[in-house]
Amino acid sequence: MKRIKLLLVSLVFLFNMMLVKPALADRPPLDQNPDYTAITETLTNLTQAQETNTLPEGMTTEAAQQQITSLQYQKYIMETGGDTICRNETSQAIAVYGDKPAKSESTFDQVIYLLPAGAETDDDWACKGVYVPSDAKVAGLTLDSAAAVKILEGTQLVVTEDSDTGVINFNIPPANVFKAGDINWDIPDLTQSALTTPIPAAPVD
User: Fold this and answer.
1) What pLDDT shows up at residue 27?
2) Is 58 left (phi over 0), alpha (psi -120 to 50) or beta?
3) Phi/psi zone of residue 140: left (φ > 0), alpha (ψ -120 to 50 degrees), beta?
4) CB neighbours of 133 closer than 8 A, spacing ≥ 6?
5) Alpha-carbon dihedral of residues 51, 56, 58, 60, nearest 10 degrees?
6) CA–CA dist 184, 182 (Å, integer)
7) CA–CA gap between residue 191 and residue 194 (Å, rounded)
8) Where are the strands (E) in the chain, listed by range?
């Protein structure tokens, strides 16, 4: 009887592994991810500089520790995160970033897609970030123009808004914030109301 139970447990385990492997195979090893490599290298160098009292000129110990903590958190997200998802819990549509379609003529690496209120991107489609319109206000960020908020692989980003002020909130700090020209992403100069113009819809669950 014990042998039969052991056999059944083994079969269930093997069956689960067969289901999990394809999902894992879709995600490249972290050491091949340029974001992870950059974070790891920066964290190593900054930690060594802190330990040897050779911090960059003008950087205080407190600022270094704050950056180290932020990098450790970003590395943790990439090492432990699952599917990269963006969820819109605001009262209006937002624009998110994703890879351009295969037949697209766009010269940008990442383009914007519309994500309706209350929707989240499909877990088979990697959301790369959120577009911030030129007239939007984001908690913790000082922006005077449209911007792209980049998120890391494995991030589960939730976008909410203050019902009284309309200020946008992210549940986790952005990995980077870019303006037009900083990166090869499509960062048009649009207001929130202009997001109703024809923009392709993001795949949603």
Assistant:
1) 59
2) left
3) left
4) 95, 146, 190, 191, 192, 194, 195
5) -20
6) 7
7) 5
8) 85-88, 94-99, 110-115, 129-132, 147-150, 156-161, 168-170, 176-178
Q: Return the residue matching tokens 């040897």.
A: 52
Q: Which residues of 89-128 are buried (b: 16+ CB within 10 A; e: fewer)?
A: ebeebbbbbbebeeeeeeeeebbbbbbeeebbbeeebbbb
pLDDT tens, 131-154? 999 999 999 999 999 999 999 999
* Angstrom distance (rounded) from CA 27 to CA 30: 8
Q: What's the CA gap between 186 and 199, in Å, rounded?
A: 12
HSE (CB half, 13 Å, CA atoms) of 176? 12
For residue range 51-64, list pLDDT tens digits in order.
Answer: 999 998 889 999 99
DSSP 167-205: -EEESS--SEEE-BTTBSB------GGGGGSS-PBPPB-
Distance set, CA 128 to CA 8, 11, 119, 132, 166 (Å): 41, 38, 16, 13, 23
Angle at 154 (CA atoms; ends 16, 93), nearest 5 degrees? 115
* Per-residue model confidence (pLDDT) at position 82: 84
CB 158 within 8 A of CB 89: yes
Q: pTM of the full predicted structure?
A: 0.78
Polymer length of the chain: 205
